[in-house]
Specification:
The protein has about 200 residues and is mostly helical. About 50% of the residues lie in helices and about 10% in strands.
């Protein structure tokens, strides 16, 4: 390895980062399309770069084909939710991939109640370095719970407690987000409401 490095014979890996940073006169659109055709993008790289592909006007059929072939067994739902925010034109394929991922999850027994905070602070980003919101993460948990628990009730709480309709996928995300105004955080009252 060191000899190849010293002799200038070290092979540069063909990753999406290397391909896009190369100054070779090839457009980013062409680079994305080559990477998609060759299946060179892993699940996370594909999900995180949909916005870039949209911006470069990458061939829609190639993106759809990649989303249909995605190996996303270890990708959590909130990643699909975040990707859909920036690439809504591919939401149907993102949801299909998310369900494919969740179908491999082990199912749990018993009744489960999930309380989701939808107060104003949930609309904030998880961190200064992330565009993902706390609400994205909470909705991802709701989507996961709906798929792995055979009997689950989902409630949101803010100024009141609201039961969320028994929806799945992105429809469940929308139901959680739109269940009520994003105001205060009355967790104690929500627990009492759910116990009744």
């Amino acid at each position: 390895l060191w000899k190849r490095l010293i002799d200038g014979e070290l092979v540069v890996p063909d990753t999406w980062e290397v391909a896009l940073s190369a100054q070779d006169g090839v457009s980013k659109k062409e680079k994305w399309e080559r990477l998609l055709k060759e299946g060179r993008l892993g699940a996370m790289a594909l999900l995180r770069n949909l916005r870039n592909m949209k911006q470069e006007q990458v061939d829609n059929a190639l993106v759809v084909q990649a989303l249909q072939a995605i190996k996303a067994e270890k990708v959590l739902p909130f990643r699909f939710i975040a990707a859909a925010r920036y690439a809504p034109q591919w939401e149907q394929y993102l949801e299909d991939a998310m369900f494919k991922c969740l179908s491999a999850q082990e199912k749990a027994a018993g009744k489960t109640v999930l309380l989701i905070d939808v107060s104003g602070s949930m609309d904030a980003q998880i961190s200064a370095r992330s565009e993902m919101t706390r609400m994205d993460a909470a909705c991802g948990l709701a989507v996961l719970a709906r798929e792995i628990y055979p009997e689950v009730e989902i409630f949101t709480f803010s100024n009141k407690t609201a039961q969320v309709p028994a929806r799945r996928g992105f429809a469940l995300r929308d139901a959680v987000v739109n269940s009520q105004l994003h105001g205060g955080t009355y967790l104690g009252k929500a627990i009492q409401d759910v116990e009744c």
